[in-house]
Amino acid sequence: MSLAEKINIDLRNALKAGDKKLLAVSRNVLSELKNLLIRENLSREISNVSDDSFQKVIKTIVKQKNETKEYLVHVNDQEKIDIINYDLLYLESFMLKYLSDKETEDLIKKYISENNFEKKDFGKLMSLLKSNQGNEIDLSKAAKFVNSLLN
């Protein structure tokens, strides 16, 4: 069973159980997956979503939720923060596990020493990381490490 099909099952279970929180977040994900299918000109069958495409959609939704959460913290809306936290917890269960910060930093140091990268090679290093370890590391954290290491 694909990850996208698991979301569909979660949606049905949430409907049966009357779980409004799970229903809302699973509907949101299914909506984004169907939008992806439309953009890619594929049939609207959820099983056509590859796990790689699924991960990209989940990453995007998590990023949007985190941005929303930052705003909500700023305006101190605890009720909505709790909803976002629930959504993030659910969504992160589908995400691939990233390397730790230490492992990411060590990997970047290895690439820098092997390729003699300098500050001007930021883009080259990020491209190398994305193509080789795109699903293993958080690229936004990696960019911060690269900036600090390429001084």
How would you describe this structure to a colleague?
The longest helix has 25 residues, at 51-75. It is globular and about 55 Å long. The chain contains seven helices and no strands. Helix 2 packs across helix 3, helix 5 (101-115) crosses helix 7 and helix 6 (122-133) runs antiparallel to helix 7. The protein folds into two domains: 3-92, Orthogonal Bundle (Hypothetical Protein Yqey, Chain: A, domain1), CATH 1.10.1510.10; 101-149, no CATH class. The protein is mostly helical and 151 residues long.
Pick out its properties:
151 residues, mainly alpha, Hypothetical Protein Yqey, Chain: A, domain1
In summary, what is this structure?
Helix content is 75%, strand content 0%. It is globular and about 55 Å long. By secondary structure, the protein is mainly α.
Write the SSE topology.
Elements: H1 3-17, H2 20-39, H3 51-75, H4 78-92, H5 101-115, H6 122-133, H7 139-149
Helix pairs in contact: 1-2, 2-3, 3-4, 5-7, 6-7
User: What is the distance, rounded to the nearest whole angstrom, between the alpha carbons of the first and last residues?
Assistant: 46 Å
Globally, the shape reads globular
CATH homolog superfamily of the largest domain: Uncharacterised protein YqeY/AIM41, N-terminal domain
Extended strand count:
0
Q: Could you list the spans in which at least 5 consecutive residues all have pLDDT below 50?
A: none
The average pLDDT is 88
Q: Tell me about the largest β-sheet.
A: none
Helix content: over 70%
Strand content: under 5%
CATH top level label of the largest domain: Mainly Alpha
Tell me the Rg in angstroms: 18 Å
CATH architecture label of the largest domain: Orthogonal Bundle
Given the helix and strand composition, which structural class is it? mainly alpha
- Number of continuous helical runs: 7
What are the secondary-structure elements, in order, as H or E? HHHHHHH
- Domain unit count: 2
CATH topology value of the largest domain: Hypothetical Protein Yqey, Chain: A, domain1
